[in-house]
Design brief:
This protein is 15% helix and 37% strand. It is an alpha+beta fold and 219 residues long. Strands 6-5-4-3-2-1-11-10-9-8-7 form an eleven-stranded antiparallel sheet. This is Outer membrane lipoprotein-sorting protein.
Length: 219
């Protein structure tokens, strides 16, 4: 499968979204603020308790195109999005940088992990409650949290979606997330087959640099 530059940019919307400063979702009513504080504390505890996560993912872009793959996460700050075999892209965070490797055109791009909305998910040292709020869903079994650093709105907005599950860390199961770019385009990532706190080797977050080519004669 070949992708245009636009198509590749759409793949990244859910990971490197740059959103406008304005809030994208309504603020919870005052009567719900006590419950909201408890829910935010539960999400913060979830992030602290999840040392690793593996799951299948399906990512749907603004055009309705869906790609699948496998997600691997390890705290602190490591994550890998291995797309389906016909997609020549790999996205990896090694604890410091989020890197997109494009094997089709032999290019590598990097961003500080803190510049990505995913920092809300893979940085357990951050105080989650300072840059997030509960978004009312109308379903008591679904918890939706919008994370946005108000001091750095250019870093984007991500809405994490959890399902309540007593058997999962902190009683929550990460169902996926929704992100919007500066033009309001929406990308959704849905997870399935989640496995928590399973052994994950650091080698999972290494990658082959497509810019390195062997010299003639093998030297």
């Amino acid at each position: 499968m070949r992708f245009s530059r636009l198509g590749k940019a759409c793949l990244l919307t859910g990971l490197l979204t740059l959103a406008p400063a304005g809030a994208l979702f309504p603020v919870a009513p005052a009567a719900a603020q006590g419950r909201d504080a408890d829910d935010l504390a539960s999400v913060a505890r979830y992030i602290r308790e999840v040392k690793s996560l593996t799951a299948d993912f399906a990512q749907t872009d603004r055009n309705g195109q869906t790609l699948t793959g496998q997600l691997t996460l390890k705290q602190p700050g490591k994550i890998r999005f291995q797309y389906q075999k016909d997609v020549p892209l790999l996205i990896v965070a090694d604890g410091k940088s989020l890197t997109m490797i494009d094997y089709e055109v032999r290019q590598v791009q990097r961003w500080p992990i803190g510049s990505s909305p995913l920092g809300a998910l893979i940085d357990p040292s951050r105080d989650f409650t300072k840059f997030s709020k509960v978004v009312q869903t109308g379903d008591p079994n679904v918890l939706s949290i919008e994370a946005r650093d108000p001091k750095r709105p250019e870093f984007g907005t991500i809405t994490l979606v959890f399902r309540r599950n007593a058997a999962a860390p902190a009683g929550l199961d990460l169902h996926g997330w929704v992100a919007r770019d500066a033009q309001g385009n929406r990308t959704a990532v849905r997870l399935s087959g989640q496995a928590y706190n399973v052994p994950v080797e650091d080698a999972a977050f290494r990658w082959k640099d497509p810019r390195v080519r062997s010299r003639p004669g093998g030297h």
